[in-house]
Amino acid sequence: MAGHHRRAAVLCGIGTWLPPRVVTNADLARQLDTSDEWIRTRTGIRERRVIDRGMSTSVLAVEAGARALKSSGSSEVDLVVVATTTPDHPCPSTAPEVAHRLGLTGVAAFDLNAVCAGFVYALATAAGHIAAGSAERVLVIGADTFTTVLNPLDRTTLAIFGDGAGAVVLRAGTPDEPGALGPFDLGADGSNADLLIVPAGGSEQRGSGEPLDPADVHFRMDGQPVFRNAVTRMSESAVKVLDRAGWRVEDVDRFACHQANARIISAVARDLAVPQERFVLNVDRVGNTVAASIPLVLADAAAAGDIEPGHRVLVTSFGAGLGWGSTVLTWPELDLG
Length: 337
Hints:
By secondary structure, the chain is an alpha/beta fold. The protein folds into 2 domains: 171 residues, 3-Layer(aba) Sandwich (Peroxisomal Thiolase, Chain A, domain 1), CATH 3.40.47.10; 147 residues, Peroxisomal Thiolase, Chain A, domain 1 (3-Layer(aba) Sandwich). It is built from 11 helices and 13 strands. The strands form 4 sheets. A 5-stranded mixed β-sheet has the order 1-7-6-4-5, with helices on both faces. The protein has a 4-stranded mixed β-sheet with strand order 8-13-12-11, with helices on both faces. The longest helix is centred in the C-terminal third of the chain and has 23 residues.
């Protein structure tokens, strides 16, 4: 099929929302055996946002989704995909309620759980619906309230994670226009599923017949192997997606990595032999926001003029599962609100 006949998913709107409550490293140091210096040297994080009582993932998703729709100049979409690992309920999925609260009642809506790789997986899923002709416009929201699954005594995870939401609108277009999402590289390695895990709450624990261990409702992470895997998988995935796109690494103006940890991002830059300045960062201000990470850093960088229309952007992510994913695009003109 000739290239100009192929439908592509084109980014045409972006919006974000962070809960108002800021938790600084100093705030954490008052309740735990940690310090601002300990957190900053290991993660590059200064502060993060945490939901207030009465908030949930859907609240964040609706706010970010409304801003993305406004940015796109249209409130019409055919599909809503919410990437999240912290849905409001185990059942039903959060997306139908989010769609309803956005005035999109009746449109297809579902959740996608690929943890920190969730947003890129959701972009690929949305792009597939557009390519297949089953959707003209899709609202993709990455939203997580990961602080709700953290152990209040675990200084490592409390320092790293924050809550937030980011969303984009994709429309049907052509592969050669600005904003068209390029090829995708997606992968997973379930042999390492236990490196990042919330052990309880699912069918395995519920079907075990064993009494619930209260510690198992909290997230656990094995830091060192996660660090190594994150660097390797994002670097390899970036190289694969560049190859598929026919780009060289030096063609890329900006790299938007999942914002897990500033040291991981520095290591990816070293692996790819790319100057650190080409990597956009906001992890210092928001921490690891899981599925919200990529849209948040893209929107922040665009608002700051660090990503400009015409810039060639590579997006890469890594998370629990293990899962990873990358894509490329030429940054379009967007209404940033």
